Amino acid sequence: MLDVLVIGGGNAALCAALMAREAGASVLVLESAPREWRGGNSVHTRNLRCMHDAPQDVLTEAYPEEEFWQDLLKVTGGLTNEKLARLAIRESSDCRDWMRHHGVRFQPSLSGTLHLSRTNAFFMGGGKALMNAYYRSAEKLGIEVRYESTVNRLELKDGRFVAAHMTSLNGSQGSQRIEARTCVVASGGFESNLEWMREVWGQNDAGEWPSDNFAIRGTRFNMGVLLRDLIDQGADTTGEPNQSHCVAVDARAPLYDGGICTRVDCVSLGVVVNKHAERFYDEGEDFWPKRYAIWGRLVAHQPAQVAYSIIDAKAVGRFMPPVFPGEKADTLEQLARQLGLDEQAFVKTVQDYNAACKVGTFDHGVLDDCHTEGLSPAKTHWARPIDTAPFYGYALKPGITFTYLGMKTDETTAVHFGGQASPNLFAAGELMAGNVLGKGYTAGVGMTIGTAFGRIAGVQAAKAAKAQMADKASTSTTLTEDHHAAA
Ligand SMILES: Cc1cc2nc3c(=O)[nH]c(=O)nc-3n(C[C@H](O)[C@H](O)[C@H](O)COP(=O)(O)OP(=O)(O)OC[C@H]3O[C@@H](n4cnc5c(N)ncnc54)[C@H](O)[C@@H]3O)c2cc1C
Prior knowledge:
Elements: E1 4-7, H1 11-22, E2 27-30, E3 47-49, H2 65-76, H3 82-101, E4 106-107, E5 120-123, H4 126-140, E6 144-146, E7 149-157, E8 160-168, E9 175-179, E10 182-185, H5 194-201, E11 215-216, H6 225-232, E12 237-238, E13 244-250, E14 271-274, H7 288-291, H8 295-300, E15 307-311, E16 327-329, H9 332-339, H10 343-356, E17 357-358, E18 371-372, E19 391-403, E20 406-407, E21 414-417, E22 420-427, H11 445-486
Helix pairs in contact: 1-4, 1-11, 2-3, 3-11, 9-10
The structure holds flavin-adenine dinucleotide.
């Protein structure tokens, strides 16, 4: 019988598969996507947040455990499991040698990625290259991968994994039942499931269904099928269905897989207005990597789920330029017309903001003293008048990265049923990220969580499979001895 069945084909799944194989287990990976779309949201990533006590190859200075933990505590507002969070943080300090061993290469952060050179290790070639490296390594180690294989249901008995029921993408091979000694589920969140998103976000007072206007930044294959199945079968959950990593992306982004090229990163350098040309939040609240993931939700609560990021010529060159150019105009009136905003209202909003700016020493690398006075909402840092042509505007809409509702786990990543840990069913990655991320986000922590708990899940699954074999061997020895004694 197969030792470890891994469900999912992203970072967490491959980390689990590789670790289980290295521990001597036989491993089969079932990935919903066709080969060319393999890798889930992980192919879209660029970096991993890492703890380190001194400069390390691509990482500058130090980023100690305590600082990482405080950052997490702040962004989650305390909605985090400290034990699991610290475990992930510590694991991030020494996982890169293992990643390199499997062919992952790192590079220093590029200028424009804002304050990340100290905290985040960037993958050379991005997440696509990272996933390709892991798949190559898996193949070399004899791990079987089946693509276009969606698991619809887990067969469980008293919290114990028995078998997975799957269908191929086009259903050509009918339904199959796959038994294994242990199973790691790493099938992501449910962000790609538009119906489920609609259910969670509901209808607003204006009668709109906000999630109808969301882009899904990553894969279309994270439908939450097993999340739903496990919940229906009584697994303990963590995180709220409506919590997610949600970024404001270019409003022209496609429904799925727009990836990072739809990011617009100039919010903290200007102002953001809604479709009534009104500002609605402090654009300079904190460094962009600590705030970019709240803007999707903020825009989701605006009329028509749309907003406009406005900057002037002074901001150009200070942020990663968006791949797709925005609107450009020589006057504010013209920019308003191009964006379809009420001209008078827009100009008044910008003029009020300009008049309220108290410019000190502008420095985008620190929480500087440029702020507004007497304006609501305030802009607390990097506030400089928008007065230098040309002016630029980018239409934004919410872009969901991943949802936080998931399986409640412990340090072994075991899925729990009524508070009891399953002996042979483990969860990793987005499917359990909600244990650490109750809300909020800090850049690079998704891959920290997936790598840490994917690796742990692989080791635990291999261990549980071995224990089962040992149990079976001792039972059959006892049975044989009993048999001889009886004879
Ligand atoms: C545009 C974008 C940029 C990002 N950038 C970063 C970054 O730079 N740093 C960072 O830390 N995080 C980043 N993230 C978040 C990061 O992608 C996730 O935290 C991480 O990839 C989660 O890994 P995972 O393996 O749990 O899920 P995924 O990589 O999404 O993998 C889930 C897998 O499960 C498969 N699957 C789903 N359902 C089934 C089923 N029923 N049966 C079989 N297979 C199934 C899917 O096909 C997929 O392969 C980014 C996300 C996006 C979308």
